Amino acid sequence: MSTTLRGSTAIVGVGMCTVATLPPESSPVDAMALAVADALADSGVLLSEIDGVFAAGLQLFMPTLSLCEYLNIKPRYTDSTQVGGGTFIAHLNHAQAAIAAGLCEVALIAYGSTQKSSGGKFASHSEPSPYEMPYRYPGPVAAYALIAQRHMHEYGTTREQLAEVAVAARRWAQFNSRAFDQTPLTVEDVLGSRTVASPLTVRDCCLVTDGAGVVIVTSAARARDCRRPPVYVLGVGEAVTHRSIAQMENLVCTGASDSAHRAFQQARLTPDDVDVTQLYDAFTIMPIVFAEDVGFCAKGEGGAFLGGGRCEPGGAFPMNTNGGGLSFGHPGMFGIYTIIESALQLRGDCGLRQVRDAHVALAHAPGGYMSSHSTAIFGTEEVL
Q: What's the pTM?
């Protein structure tokens, strides 16, 4: 893995649209535009300076075209790669390569969704699996329930350990005014909730919200002239292993081990160097598996590693510090928020949830049914 791209680009602006339910007839592009305005104000970059646009979504067939038309911009480079919830970390990888190659100078990475306000009108362009559809199993929650069951069987992971992931996310959310669910939550609350797909209850599953997020990336040289302190992209890695859950070779071992290895190699860092971590949590089993595969603990130890308050505020392993998909919000794809929260933490902009002396952040997100994996490592100027 080449390390020549290490620190060559930086995040200079982030923006969000955190409206749980947008007004009727709103579109995903409306949501993205609100987040774009927020990111431009944050960075000081002008809309006319955006010459690279990266976007994906569940509802839009040609998201970059729709967004560029809405914003009335004509970038010289676009990318609408779609690999699921971790797409935007993959976009970050593509953006750093495009900037280094001179294909664009200021890249905008965007996502927006109206999955909640659309209600019964919500339509996804995701193709159904002809091998799984006849069995009518209930989508992602069933797939991740299979993973949870297997992890519990192989390693003795407990329902209480799964529940602790949800409780920790809620405790972080209580320090985040933009989080959608800040009501108190206990392990007993999680265990006593309605079962969705055994062993997962409704409190083991992410929220359903509208929302959008935007990240602005540029060269390290140009970043120094922007309004906010640069957050440098130190390493990014991608991996793809399968598409449908039936074709997942091992339910408890994921491609996160490959994407994380590539990211750490490019960053010239190890898991011990990471100060704050964002591990995609659409379901409580996910951070447990990722903690293992990314390299923070040994295989099978994820439940115990994240338990006992370790990943809660004040714990030794601050994780999903905005409240995650379980409590902050989940507009269909959450990966963009793992980047945004990493940048906010390294800039010191997180207020009551700020992790002290945070200089290295890691964001990891999958797509599909643990099908694709994208890992990014970020750093402040001190570690550049």
A: 0.96
